[in-house]
Amino acid sequence: MFAFCTDPKSLEGAAWFACYLTSGTHLAMYWSVLTVLLLLVLAAPSALAFGFGGAVMARSHVLPVAWLGKGYIAMVRGVPDIVFFLFVPIAVDQGIEYLLHVTRCSDWTEPVRRGADFVVCAQAKMPPSSAPKLAHDAYAFGLALLAFSLVFGAFAANTLAGAMAAVPRAQVETAESYGMTRAQAFRRVILPQMWVYALPGLSNLWMILVKATPLLFLLGIQDIVYWARELGGSKTQIYAYPHPDWRVWYFLGLLVFYLLLTWGSERVFGLVQNRLSVGQATAAGEALRKAGAA
Amino acid sequence: MRTCAESLTEYGLRALGRDYGAQLLPKGADISLCDQIVLIGSGMIWNVYFAVFAVTLGFGFATLIALAKASPLRGLRAPATAFIFVFRGSPLFIQFFFAYETFQILPKVTGTLNLGIMELSVTTGSLTRAWLGALIVLFLNTSAYTAEIFYGALRSVPKGDMEAADAYGLTGWARFRRITWPTMLRLSWPSYTNEAIFLFHATTLVFFSGFPAWQQSGDALYYARYFADQTFNPFVAYPIIAAYFILATLGITALYGAINRRLNRHLPREARPRLRFRPQIIR
Hints:
The structure holds two protein chains of two kinds.
Chain A: H1 13-20, H2 24-59, H3 63-78, H4 81-104, E1 113-114, E2 117-118, H5 133-166, H6 169-177, H7 182-212, H8 224-232, H9 247-277, H10 283-293
Antiparallel strand pairs in A: 1-2
Chain B: H1 4-11, H2 33-69, H3 74-89, H4 92-105, E1 110-114, E2 119-123, H5 130-155, H6 159-167, H7 172-202, H8 220-231, H9 234-263
Antiparallel strand pairs in B: 1-2
Helix pairs in contact in B: 1-2, 2-3, 2-5, 2-7, 2-8, 2-9, 3-5, 4-5, 5-7, 7-9, 8-9
């Protein structure tokens, strides 16, 4: 990066560190922070969408649909989320390949599962083996994103279902007395009001999501945990920057990174909460009013 | 192919190590359904071990931390608040990695611990093994989460209860033991149940972080993943572990529900707080 970095072996002290911390692999690590943030930015709205779908389904009057929604909400209660993180990507991957296999290679007669193997024809490989590395990375990331959305969608569904139920019953009854249908009452009365009740739960969910991002590492994505392990391990003299095992420092750095991330989010949510509470007939709103009057 | 009885004798206790079953895990096409059920179940030994010890030890420590955080003394309050912030604000996964690397660079010291009746040989090398190192991390982690729950409950102890205690002349330790502490437990029990469930789920992270599975003795998820990799079929191993965890979660709910009923036995039935699913405390 810097001009004086051409011969790292001759450097010492601060100059060595300046060069070390800006080496190509370290820059890759800094970029991988973006992977984490990208996952957060994409997973939050899609989890919300999954959650909304689940919550609406759980309210349905059609019994099988309601069971499906309730089952979805309950699924994260009994089974560790990490099981889903491991299961969903590989299951979806095999599902897609199997479907492609059936449609594209209908002349194959051998079974797809042979003993300990899962074999599909070449045209059914996802992504195609000729695809560039970027496509493979994007595909893996997409599967990881799906797993995150599914698991956190279940948490969000729980929060949103609670928020929908928290809208005062009298409001819905008034809407019904005006002759609104169930759908109209939901759209015009429940939907606009539920967010006030959902916000604390959703901000909590964001924290949970932030703290779940290191699990990307388990899905084979080159995230910051991967780089911390790679870069921190001891490097012999054949490397440009030899050093002993520094993984503990790298993980300390990660710990601080995540603490800052959660601390920052907490501050932002505090401000938003305050902002939303102004003029509201809640305890927080009352406290704000009193503070203003004093 | 093994029969189911053979699977049971060979792999029933395999999670404890090589001495307790077959040398090697089943491989590839040799894997039967019974192998998967037995070996994953055997791995549950570790999940239960971590959860039971972390939760029971963490309960006492969390009470102390919660009291420290609620204390008017700054010297007690600040460290307790910092402890809770660090362990709740960072991912458990990173905590495992960090703790493992820290334990790695500790000097290896072997000492003897005199317990009066017997002498125990203690070595810091055990810290890098999951049974001790990961247990310490889980213990500290659950202590922080539980302490925050207890702290919230301590602050919500009804003023009237404390005034009644004053009126009866209860002070200090007697007031804490007979009024504050039981009320705190009563208020926090539904949240604490969730914490116990999610801690139990979090035990699956142990063997995915730095802590190695010596002699291929790991927890349930370690084996489930092993089978999914070996057979390239996620549709058998993962549902098995899911079933085990659902059963165990129902067990935890039943146990904590029974304690909840006992804590609130003075209340009329409909006034007792119900245990509710609140996923605030995943790690």
